[in-house]
Amino acid sequence: MKQTRKIYLDNAATTPVHAEVVKVMQACLADIFGNPSSIHSFGREAKEVMEKARDSVASLLGSRNEEIVFTSGGTESDNSAIKGVAFANKDKGNHIITSTVEHHAVIETCRFLETQGFKITYLPVDGSGLVDPGSVKKAVTDKTVLISIMHANNEIGTIEPVEEIGRIAREKGIYFHTDAVQTAGHIPINLKELPVDLLSVSAHKLYGPKGIGALYIRKGVKMAAFIHGGEQERNRRAGTENIPGIAGFGKAAEIAKKEMQTEMKRQAALRDKMISGILKKIEKTRLNGHPTRRLPNNVSMSIEYVEGESILLNLDLAGIAASSGSACSSGSLEPSHVLLAAGIPPEVARCSIRFTLGRYTTDGEIEQVLQILPGIIMKLRKMSPLFKDSH
Ligand SMILES: *Cc1c(COP(=O)(O)O)cnc(C)c1O
C-alpha cells in the first residue's frame, strides 16, 4: 500500500497542540519562572501571564475572571465540583442527580460519594442519548444538593438540554454542574445567560496542553477547597500554579474563540459528509446519538457484525486513528456504558466506532477514509459467520 500521511480522527480523546500554543509555552518555560505568589518583579511577571490567561478562558465562557479556577484538567474539575459541593452542603442534604451517560470522571466520583453516605440518582437517557429535563425535575427531592449533567457526550456527541435542566435547578435552588470538556471552545457557551453554577473544561481537548483545565465556579457557590495548603486560586486549590500550562491554555482559548464560528460550520459539513458516506457505502450501519443535536465533530457509528476493535486495528494499519467507545474503555472489551445506556444492544455496541474531527481535518482526509473503510468492513464481515447467516 502507498504510504500516505497519517489521518487523526480521535480529537475527542485529545487534540494536537496548536503551534501558537507551543510557542507561548516555550517562551514561558524559558523565561517566566517566577512564583506568582512572590511580590517581586519575577513573581508579578508570572502572575500577569496567569491573569491574562484567566481572562482568555473567562472570555471564551462568558464568565468573570475571578470565577475561573485552574485545575489539572477535566477529571480534577469534575471531581472538585461534585465533591466540593457535596461535602460543603451536607447540612442541606445528601442527594445528587446525574445521568448514566456521564464521563467516568463524574460517574466514578458519584460512586465514591455513595460510599460516603450520599444517595445518587443516575437518570436514564433516550435512544439518542438525551436526558429528559422532565425526569430531572421528577428526581428532585428536598435532600437534593447538586445536579450534574454533561453539556455534550464524548462518545456519541449528543448535546444535552443543559439550559432547561439549569432552569429547573435554579427554580428549585439546587446547584447545577456541567462537564463541558467536549463543548468549551467548540460550540458557544455563554455563562452570562446559561443557568449553570459550575462548569468543567480541559485544555487538551481544545488544542492546548495536557494536565491543565479549569473549573468555573459561579460567585456565591458554597463549596469546599479541592486541595488544601497555600492560598492559591482564592483558597480553592493550593499549590504553585502551572504557569506554562496556564499560558498555553489561555492562548488555546483565545484561538478557539476566534475560530469557533468558522470551525463549527466547516467541521459539521465534513461530519455530515462522512456520516452520509458511511451510511451509503456500508450496509447495516447506523448513527449513534442524536441526528441533529450533536457535536459538529462527532461521527459515531454502529457497524453491525464487526467488532469496533477489529475496525480500529485495521484502520490503524492504514494510518487512520479512530476510537471505539471512549479512550478509557477501549482496551477493555466491555461495551461502552454510554451506548448501552442509549439502549443499543451489547452485540451492536461492540460494533461501534467513533471518528472525531478537528481543526486540522481536511476534506481530502474524509474522502480517503470513505475510500478505505468499506473495504476493511467487507474483509472483516467475510470472516463473520453471523454476517454470512444474515444473508
Ligand atoms: C476528556 C474528558 C474528561 C477528562 O478530562 P482530562 O483533562 O483528560 O482529565 C472529562 N469529561 C469529558 C466529557 C471528557 O471528554
Question: Could you provide a short overview of the structure?
Answer:
The protein has twelve helices and twelve strands.
Notes on the structure:
Helix 6 (162-172) links the parallel strand 5 (144-148) and strand 6 (175-179). Helix 3 (74-88) packs parallel to helix 4. The chain has two domains: 7-15 and 260-390, Aspartate Aminotransferase, domain 1 (Alpha-Beta Complex); 19-255, Type I PLP-dependent aspartate aminotransferase-like (Major domain) (Aspartate Aminotransferase, domain 2), CATH 3.40.640. With 391 residues, the protein is an alpha/beta fold. 41% of the residues lie in helices and 13% in strands. It has twelve helices and twelve strands. The relative contact order is 0.17. The protein has a seven-stranded mixed beta sheet, with helices on both faces. The mean pLDDT is 95. The site of pyridoxal-5'-phosphate has 15 residues, from helix 3.
